[in-house]
Amino acid sequence: MGYGHEISPIIGLESMRDAGIEAMLIVACGTSYHAGLVGKCIFEELLKIPVRVELASEFNYYPQTLAKTLSIVITQSGETADTIKATRRLQEKGCHVLAITNVVGSTISRIADLTLYTQAGPEISVASTKSFIAQLVALYWLAMSYSISDVNRLANMLMSIRQLPNIVQQVLDNQSSIKQYGEYLAGFNNVFFIGRDINYPVALEGALKLKEVSYIHAEGYAAGELKHGPFALLDKDTPVIAIVAKDNTYEAMLNNIREIKARGAPVIALVENGNTPASEIADFIISVPKAGLIFSPIANSVVLQLLAYYAAEKRGCTIDFPRNLAKSVTVE
Ligand code: M6R
Fold first, then answer.
1. Going by CA atoms, what residue is nearest to atom 9 of ligand 1?
2. Closest CA to 97 of 89, 105, 44
3. Which of 4-13, 170-179, 207-216 has the lowest mean pLDDT?
4. For position 269, what pLDDT does the model report?
5. Alpha-carbon distance 159 to 167, whole Å?
6. Distance 127 CA to ligand 1 centre (A)
């Protein structure tokens, strides 16, 4: 047919072992790269193998060690020039490439060895939103398919994944509160987003979304890194959005919020079910429904997308078509 083959939904670990796979490589750009960074956490948790994530625009310019590596490229459009170049480069080195893409018949779907379609439907706006969420869900499914976890854990994960539409609906039902904070952010020129572990790439994505649609300068940071430089920028005019997950990073994140508060910056914390200790430390709280440990990026991402949307709306921006940007980046 000329299209990539749709991947079988269940590929057991045995087939990875049979193929001698000992590591994974994910290559992508922009929002798809952030999905790849979340994917790294998911795969390392469920498969217990090392995962590298590379920006396609960088990957294409340095030597690679790819022995025994499963390669995945992620691209909504399937037409991003750097990702296509990376795919060809991987194939030239003898790698089989699995593509996660949204667009049936796109260039990537035709050249990849296997294609997993995210089936998010056409995404018209330049900013990736629903396709990012669909990429995350595809990565969860893929990791569960390869997982060496026991049957009970997988059954629990399956239940959690089935709850995700309900979780997203709860976030949407809370829009009036998110709108209020989006409009608050519209009054600032600089915003930081911080997260840890699986929510660190969510912070990167929140910052990208805000800058892309509202033109507010935003930076995503690993929460523990602010003290290594960015503290110098913190004051009352630099709000920090902190993603607080109720996982092994919880106490460390609370300490990070205290450090930020001590430097005078306002903190808006995303907290699961409005949990109390974080509520007492941060200035403002956005309550996020509990999605289960490794699924928290879904709920948090939708909150951050809405924050960006309402900040941009308040500033009168053309939200779906930001200046200077194209939906598909077909040049290197
Ligand atoms: O189509 P792709 O996923 O390959 O696009 C990659 C980036 O150009 C894209 O995600 C970009 O960062 C978005 N506009 C972000 O919202």
1. 30
2. 89
3. 4-13
4. 96
5. 12
6. 7
Q: Is the CB of 205 under 6 A from ligand 1?
A: no
Q: Which atom of ligand 1 is nearest to the CA of 135?
A: 3
* 3-class SS letters over 217-277: EEEEEEHHHHHHCHHHHCCCCCCEEEEECCCCCHHHHHHHHHHHHHCCCCEEEEEECCCHH
Tokens coding 256: 């990070």
Q: Output the pLDDT for position 60.
A: 85
| Amino acid at site 51 | V
CATH superfamily of 13-159: Glucose-6-phosphate isomerase like protein; domain 1 (3.40.50.10490)
The mean pLDDT of the chain is: 90
CATH number given to 163-314:
3.40.50.10490
pLDDT reading at 299 higher than 70: yes
Query: Against a cut of 0.85, is the pTM above it?
Result: yes
Assess whether the C-beta atom of 301 lies below 6 angstroms from ligand 1.
Answer: no
What is the predicted pLDDT for the residue at 147?
Answer: 80
Model pLDDT, residue 275? 67
